[in-house]
Amino acid sequence: MLLRLVGEGVSQRNREGKRGARERLREQRERERSRAKRKRTLGVLGAVVAVLAGAVGVGMVASMTEDDSGKSGSSVVPPRGAVGKGRLVIPSGMVGKAGKAGRADKAGKPAPVTLTVYEDFRCPGCKQFEDVFRETVHELQDQGRMKVEYHLVTIIDGNLGGTGSVRAANAAACAQDQGAGKFRAYHDVLYRHQPAETRDRYAKNARLIKLADQVPGLVTPAFRKCVEEGRHDAWVRKSSDVFAHSGYASTPTVLLGGKSVYGDPDKPLSPNKLKRMVLAAARD
Which residue windows are transmembrane per the record (predicted)? Predict the structure, then answer.
């Protein structure tokens, strides 16, 4: 009788031990399934964010600053003729003798209205703005009716990775150093040849220098050295950081007389409308 009771006790403990092992195994598998589910969810969310960041036609601010790795030092070196607070603005006026200062009309008077443009050389929306408004902007500039102030930013580098935004902006600042309308001409070349947003071709200095050949007299030893050494990299990053804290969220951001005039679907801007607005501002 005692032996039978002992045997039954042992059997019960064995059954309980097996149930305990099965239970622990089941719990372990459940934990593994939960971890796998969380990883899949995070992966999907990450993919969605990446697609949204890459698919938007305008550049949207995704980070306050981009990777600070670059060939240049940390000192901020503004390009020649930069103006505004911190000298972060490149002014562009009429081309020719009367406009060599970039701000006066043919009679030597300051242009009555200012167009402020925040742009990223990798941004497709910025290229669209330039393609539609380039001739009108140049016409108003060369008539002395309007000056343009450019703020160079690097949103696409932050959204998609790469360095094409900062490299192209540095090269444009190097063109500004050369004077005589070189910035405006090179600025237009960069937008005409803008690569696909996901192809970071402007990260290559050789590509930027080759495009500069389309601007007569631009490619000098000084220009080449400026581009290759990243002379204005820190200046570009500073300009982009100020934009990130400005309250504006996308490129292009276009202001006329300090008021946003572009990007509102309820109030679309056209070249003729821009002309009328500039003329009206000059009369006020």
Answer: 41-62
